[in-house]
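Figure-free illustration: sequence to structure, shown twice.
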Amino acid sequence: MPRSILVTTIAAAVVAGLSSGVSAAEPEQQSRQEAFAAAADEFGVPESVLLGVSYLESRWDFNAGTPSTSAGYGPMHLTDIEAAGGGTHHDDGTEDPRGDSARPTLLPKAHETDVSAPPPDTIDDAARLTGVDAATLRVDPAQNIRGGAALLASYQRDLGIASNSPAEWYGAVARYSGATDTGAASAFADEVFTTIRDGIERVTDDGQRVRLPATPVSPNTTQVTRLGLRVTQTGEAECPRGLGCEWIPAPYEEFGNNDYGNHDLGNRPEAQKINYIIIHDTEGYYEPTLDLVQDPTYVSWQYTLRSSDGHIAQHVKAKDVAWQAGNWYVNSKSIGLEHEGFAAKGTWYTEAMYRSSAKLVRYLAAKYRIPLDRQHILGHDNVPGTTPATVRGMHWDPGPYWDWSHYFDLLRSPFFSTGTARTGLVTVKPRFETNTVPFTGCDKIGSGNPCPVRGAGSVVLRTEPRDDAPQLKDIGLRPDGTPGTMDVADHSSRAETGQTFAIAERRGSWVAVWYLGQKGWFHANDGVWSIGFVITPKKGRDSIPVYGRAYPEAAAYPTGIPAQTVVPLQYSLPAGQEYAAGLITPSEYYWAVTYDTTNHTVVRGETKYVQIQFGHRIAFVNVDDVDVRPSFL
């Protein structure tokens, strides 16, 4: 099928953007492939093992010398927290994670826990083993690969194993993950050896073609028992086999005055269908984030994923409702996944975490019959505010550096063209590696300082079909009516990979879509043509309201349960405009405001809503206000 492909590389942009002045690609005399071969030979590591480990950490990318979400640098993900620094706190901002106006607002608060506490470093050991200083290991891809090879070789020596067979390197690979438990270490090593068996080839973010030929191998998995790791406590974790998930429960506790935390018990999917999986980032490192979710007075989510090895911990059962997305309607119908990382730091997410997350989401989607598309797999940044007052305070993670295209490839549901330029819809799909959007504020939101030059999944929408035209306006995020900015946290005029919009106009190489009641332009080669359904206001309506939650009408509430006001957001949807339709959903409200679950009730109404892609976030419209039709008519 036709796919949107850009053929340029970002090597020149990366070189221009590196403050250190170090080139993004190796010297001409040694390619990335040759660097792997040379390092493998120098340190006696099977080349397939070195390539497999590097792919699972970084996909062989250099990432412009910037750190990953867990402070790892370069193709081998050598960690150096001192250079990378910490991030913002998970509890910054004004979002009420519960998002239920029937209960007291749960406001952000300071925690004694340091959520920026780092993982252990590996770069110092690599420097000692290679004789190359840490600064060079961070910015020189070839030396970084040498450092990773030296670490693997040292782990193999510690195991007392002398063998050139890749099958005998399972224990060293498992240790390289940095995991502290057997399940996580084994899951990482299993994925590396699956990659070795399957083989893979790709062009990296800095234009280097690297190939790992398919290599039959049956690794000696018993070696993991020799690493001295704790045995994984799987407990009640709900995960597919092979992921090594552990059960670290969030507390459900009562603390007087009818107050309790940090989630609500439920009976899903019997009582309520689970429609969504929400992708978050932690805004902190893994271990301190676990402390947050175990605070009985505060927030919760279902799963936390570690960056370095993709390890998963579950905290809240899928049947129960976590306080995670800032919108009670979405919370009550979703499962939340927190990924170790920082949305605003210009950092990158590891392949190990992408793969674990995709396996988990595929499992959950199959179990709860959740379609694998961007109408159901949402970023936290796609969740709407509940009322006009909450829109501005909603969180915006996982941010533009989350690679939705690659993630959906791993979900086995890739984005591709399903229509033509005449079928009415376009799905955003820039090439992540080459889409170097000039964001600012990665050092501090609002600073105006350029972010690291690296790939992103966003496209910026313009009021006219030219690159220097003003951005659109989002009166919810910027009530003063000023246009959107390039600040990394400002998605006033920004569409994200996988989101589908109704086409408003085409002009040359540009396409305009309907967005927050406006016409927004972007380059057509940053999308693929699609087909589906659209909504438009019913004839005779000048405009219709849009909502942030699909609540029932007042008459649906039984005695004893106060009716929740159906409050329109500050936007409107004018006549003559069309928006891509997602699911059509009945109205629901989960009444759960007490620790005692005996009076918890799911209220269902006669009203039905259509979920639409309204702006960067989704929204809901009353089905009685709109006409729904195929996009090509």
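We now fold a second protein in the same way, so the two outputs can be compared directly.
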Amino acid sequence: MDFQQLCTFESFQKVWSHYGYSKKLQDVIEQEFTRIKGITYLDHAAAPLYPESLVRDFCMDISSNVYGEKSNPHSHNPSSKLTHDTVEHVRCRVLQHFNTTPEEYSVIFISGCTAALKLVAESFPWRPQTATEAGSLFSYITDNHTSVIGIRGLTSGQGVVTLPVPAGDVESRAKDPEPLGAEDSGCQTPHLFCYPAQSNFSGRKYPLSHVGGMQARRLYPACDHQGRWFVLLDAAAHVACSPLDLQKCRADFVPVSFYKMFGFPTGLGALLVRNDAAALLKKTYFGGGTAAAYLAGEDYYVPTASVSDRFEDGTISFLDIIALNHGFEALNRLTGGMADIQLHTFGLARYTYMLLSSLCHSNREPVAQIYTEGEFESPSTQGAILNFNLMDCHGQVIGYSQVDKLASLYNIHIRTGCFCNTGACQIFLCTTNAKVKRNLQAGHVCGDSIDIVDGQPTGSVRVSFGYMSTFEDCQNFLNFVVDCFVEKPVQVNQVRLERLRTAATSSSHGPSIQGTSGKTEHVEENYNPTEPLLNLHTDRALTTNANKQAGTYTLTNIYIYPIKSCGAFEVSEWPLGPLGLLYDRGWMVVNGNGVFLSQKREPRLCLIHPQVHLPSKKLLLQASGMDTISVPLENDSQLHTSQRVCQSRVCGDRVQTVDCGDEAASWLSEFFGQACRLIRQCSDYTRDMKKSAGRGVAALSLVNEAQYLMINRASVELIQKHMNSRQTELSADHQPFDVQNLMSRFRANLVITGVEPFEEDNWSHLIIGTTPFLVAGQCARCQMIGVDQETGAKAKEPLLSLSSYRNGKVTFGVYLTHQLQEDSVTASTLSVGSVILPDVSL
């Protein structure tokens, strides 16, 4: 049986019957999620997709009704009364969703889960530790979101002791509480314990019984500390795909974000507060609508009796709250409720886990290291999240940034990194505190693409399923892993797979499995009889020896890209400016919202061929089927006052730009069929290169990283040969890739020849003609190199072949910087044919 036979819907149905909400899910997808056609969206733990009917019904609602402001009790006009009544109805509906009532809980609407956590931190009656009193404790399971652990930033300044607790200690260190009448029975020092209902990292579900156990002081750390223990249950990840019953789990504080449930609206959450606990919260600041009475000239303030009104400062986001009504309607109409969603999503995640954990390379090494406490035994213990790192056939981790880039080629949306949960990341990746600090010193910060430091991963890959996820999403993801990361012929750990299959069919609501070992057992079956790929390292050595010509290094091509992400303009010689090649990436195209357009979003940018005409000081815009227009190459001071200055962003940097006028905007808008404008960087604005080891300091145009990008034709030819070898194995009718076409995809400024493939990676300095350059690092490539610069068509190559050849690295070409000498009489000029003198780094 090959892989395609294993990864079929029939195979899935044999181990999971709770799929599709007893109706045809495909009809729901076609009616409600037409915008994701061709996309495999597996990032629901971050933000699920909203159904189109939700937005449509909401828009019809606010278009048909007049909703006035509801920020305080002063307005009783019909529109304000309608808003008030609708908001109060939504409060009841929120509580009903969590199986509780207004008599037990209050709903405080707030901007999101993080804001709800901050509200608790600021309002909790903390008692500082003193010489005579132990004071309050802020305690939390280490597998918590950053926003929970961030509470200690407030408590530490108040003398409150922080107590992190490993998840296993909660029950293993539990003991019977002291009986009433003991010495500590009257102690009312308030403590706060925080834990997630579901880990946003691994999807592990923590026992909801921890709430009652902590409040009764049966569990650690409550059993070791006198006082009254309150529990904050972070439900943000849990409520996206699972029911939460607050009759059974009476947590004191429950923060939620509604976009995690419905996908819309964003920027709205709630803090569900148990009314018994709400009485202890302290309110210092008071905004509009929160006071029953106050005096402006005296420190006199009486809060309103309503818990919700007391903590909802100013005008609440009442239109977004009204949208929740339609969110609940859509969720129930499409799925039948949270219990059905839980079964549907768990089944997809579990099947993905079964196959991914059983996949092996041709040498029987496992393909994935999966970060989970168990083996997806039950939806009561595991959410619809699968967290992992992929491994090569030598057992080395493949960086998550590499996986993310290749997933984009397949239109698969995943999430990578540590997911704002450093504690879980450290636990599963076995990263010590000292290692985290060393990674920071090595330049790695949260959110960057530095995925491997000293051979160890800094994060992982997460796929997560939502209520509209389909089996095809699961299938597409698994096929992607096999296509890109598994050394052929694919092997399967048959013993493991059969054990997981048997366990899955033993219980329709949650199979029970003993053991959590992820070790590879004996492999008995091939997925695919395809022979292994060509030995690429041998291929590289042969090419290197054939091309080695010591001392012969020549500049063969010069390209400038006047408009960022548009077509290249090839020249035989060109002057150097203070920011790089003169006028290189001096302009860029933005959409109607002022957001920069790149070929990732709009590949047709490559079909625009700008040219710089130095004698007339004009930038010419040319494209097939369009009249040529021109834009002046003049200083900002000479621009007409009608051309507005604006701020834009490039690679996270804020840059000062100026609009190039309506003629260029109309031309671009006609070409793309959407509102666009042409902007250019202000000449008096300085944007400096990001500082990092070996990069130096230089002023930049609108480039991504450095002033110049240089590639080596020998390296292009080697990748071309590798691509053709791969494609020939897949199809006998394959048309060979053209070197010039491939070279254009890498969008270099300078192309050199006469050197060994990838020899440039080891250079530290070089001189082209008489002009010195500093090598500022290697260029990390993304899916944009898959855009054919002649047609705008997108493909998976050459990124797949580059990744395969470079053993997971997707770097190609090197960055250069050059600083003009202040005492130089004339500006430097680069010319094709110039000799290159490299200096190899040691």
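Summary for the second example: The domain at 3-25+339-427+436-526 is CATH 3.90.1150.10 (Aspartate Aminotransferase, domain 1).
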